[in-house]
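Annotated sample (chain length 496).
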Amino acid sequence: MLPNLSLTLLAGVLITPSLANIQVAAACVGLALVLPGKVFFPNTTPYNEHNSYWSARQDELTPNCFVAPHSASDVSKALKVLRDTKAPFTVKSGGHVPFPSSNVDTGVVIDLSEINGLTLSADKTVVSVGPGNRWTAVAEYLLPEGLAVVGGRVGDIGVSGLTLGGGISWFSGRYGWACDNVREYEVVLANGSIVVANVGTNPDLYKALRGGGGPNFGIVTRFDLETFEQGNIWYKESLHAPTEANEAIEVFSDLAVDGLNDDDLAHPVMFAAYQPALGGNVIQIFRWHATPPADLNTVPAVFEPLEAIPAISEKNASLTVPDMLNVYVDAAGLRKGWWDTSIRAGNAAALQDIIANYGVWAAANLADKPDVVAVLLIIPIPTSTIAQFGKNGGNSLGVDPNTPAQIKINTYITWGSASQDSYMNDIATQLVGQTEQIAKDANAFDDGFIYMNYAERTQDVYGRRGPDIIAELKATAKKFDPKDVLKNQWKGYFKV
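Output written by the structure step:
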């Protein structure tokens, strides 16, 4: 018989006597017993604090309990309880996924926010980062040393999800994505054992975690990230009217193929936003450079072609990495979604057609929905970045290091009501299909790589990576989780 404490807890979490609820109730009780003071139940302040997410699609869920481990050992204890009770669960680092993935109804959430240590190695070449950190905390820790890492571009995003999914950075032209710059992982496996993964130890697990996501393999409790010297970052943003859209797109397209391969410290991003009041698609271009010019108003040579395009407005600055991380904040509160694809860079006409088609799509589908915001996010992936995908044994993104330059095209939508969820997925899926068809017709489509961190759950993230990567990832998952505990119980995110 359970002790009185357990009976009290059981009564608090067992609402409906289904098998799933019985399993979850038993898990929450067991967790409270082995991790006292670290398990939180509904209608308490700590529970409400943990149940906070970037997207309302996650925020609205109500797990039976949260467990907040403080160490890898705590995670091990939690996984053993969950394995034994067969309870569904998920894992939260920063909670920055738009669809339900790091939160769950009828289940347990392992919130890693308390595993937030930061330790710089004696030679200052590696920083050990707990998965509960956000990127601002990492940058602030390294700032006094004049160092940085390849990490996120928005400060409130969690370290774990971004790094495991790939991790596009301002510094990716020179160093690759975040996953390419992890020296070692500490991982808690499904059976509760704690292992490390690096080039020499568990190299298959090491490769799988480099862009292959986490839910298939284990819970990462430490990332050892390679550091490099870094001072301020220069940036500039400019807004261009619809009349200048085609010129802006052409220059940006050329930059993705030529300029970025000549200057691997540059990183540009373009947004297209349909604004009927202004007559069509407004173009906003952001550019960053890791070496600021001596004169703030001097533009790095790689970006000079953009200067000739008339702008509605523009501004620039030179900021520290922590300050740059907090320039743009995408506030929580709305329902959010993103749908991703990629085309081959270098075909300006195809990119112009894709953005023009987006405007037609927006006018047809959103004219009567003023509360909905839908934009295209366009990110070049130059060959200098792709070449880094092969270092240290390669990553699991499925993009060959010899692939020509690509452009990521992401549809990002925010809306207010759950009743619109299916509609938004339908129209976004339609737009992605149209985008890919335009690229195919223009001979500007390769494998259509889908970036996990920018994908909707309805997209076939792994399917676009090819059979060899899928086979590798499945074999690694089976090796380190032979009983399929994570496959069956870890809910919400992409599974190979």
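Annotation: The chain has three domains: 4-113, 118-230, 233-319+333-463.
Annotation: The chain has 16 helices and 17 strands.
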